[in-house]
Amino acid sequence: MSEQRKAWITYTVLRLLFFAVPFAGLYVLGLSLGFTMMLSGIVAAVIAALISVSLSILLLSKHREKASESIHDWRHRDRTADDIAEDSALDSSNE
């Protein structure tokens, strides 16, 4: 398995876990407190999303960096020297 694919899979799985685990716990907690299923789901989703984003920012910086590098490499895989020179000329004319 390529390093780029491994980075994407790891990042995606961890992001899903960072959301799913708090969501499940908060959903069950909401139901046990007597909330309706819908209210418990909405509250759990909002709080789990906040937890997920926070954990992702704090813990997944290396994985996010590798994933973004793979996007950059993929987007520029077919660039030729002529394409690079043309982009530079366009950038300098816009300044």
Could you please describe the fold and organization of this structure?
This protein has 95 residues and is an all-alpha fold. It is built from four helices and no strands. The mean pLDDT is 86. Helices cover 86% and strands 0% of the residues. It has helices at 3-32, 37-59, 61-75, 81-94. The radius of gyration is 21 Å and the shape is elongated. Helix 1 (3-32) packs antiparallel against helix 2 (37-59) and helix 1 crosses helix 3 (61-75). The longest helix is centred in the N-terminal third of the chain and has 30 residues, at 3-32. The protein starts with a helix and ends with a helix. The chain has one domain (3-86).
